[in-house]
Amino acid sequence: MSERTLVLVKPDGVRRGLVGDVIARIERKGLKIVALELRTLSAETAEQHYEEHRAKPFFGSLVEFITGGPLVALVVEGPRAVEAFRGLAGATDPVSAAPGTIRGDHALEIQENIVHGSDSTDSAEREIKLFFPDLF
Ligand code: CMP
Predict the structure, then answer these.
(1) How many Å apart are CA 41 and CA 49, to the nearest integer?
(2) How far is the CA of 93 from the centre of ligand 1 (A)?
(3) Closest by alpha carbon to 33, among 73, 71, 80, 63?
(4) Whole-complex ipTM
(5) Where does the Nucleoside diphosphate kinase-like domain start and stop, copy by copy (predicted)?
(6) Whose Cα sits closest to atom 8 in ligand 1?
(7) 78: DSSP letter
């Protein structure tokens, strides 16, 4: 059964010219891109997107980072797309992310970790609604 996930190439990834690399990996894996947009998030949208992290000590810094420049938001579709993209992204902490993954190949900082991928099908639905309300 096909499912959808929300992928963000975060402002660090856009700034460093890694959009093409991320898209190439998604396509090479066989996942399908069904929506794509370059945009700069408002603080309000960023806070909604990262709602579950509101109480964390890094929340303010995360919102500042994610609104600090344009990002690329994508909706990606395929069999178990949530898990498939998280495999491509690698562990949240790029230092321990496996080489061959996006974070393992390109990053060292936990906040500036290039990409976001929804962590469950429920999160994916909520996040896709926030970024692409017209897709439903
Ligand atoms: P993401 O997968 O988008 O989910 C939450 C984000 O918060 C994460 O990627 C990182 O960008 C950031 N993050 C997670 N843990 C930390 C941390 N300990 N310090 C700073 N930022 C973090």
Answers:
(1) 10
(2) 8
(3) 73
(4) 0.95
(5) 2-135
(6) 111
(7) E
Length of the chain: 136
Ligand 1 centroid – CA 114 distance (Å): 10
Active site includes 53?
no
The whole-angstrom separation of Cα 95 and Cα 51 is 25
Instruction: Convert the pLDDT of each residue in 78-136 to its tens digit.
Output: 999 999 999 999 999 999 999 999 999 999 999 999 999 999 999 999 999 999 999 96
Residue identifier of the C-alpha nearest atom 22 of ligand 1:
111
Q: Which two tokens stand for residue 125?
A: 């639905």
Question: CB-hemisphere CA count at 13 Å for 112?
Answer: 14
Domain 2-135 has CATH 3.40.50.300: no
Residue bearing the CA closest to ligand 1, atom 10: 111
> Is the overall model pTM greater than 0.90, yes or no?
yes
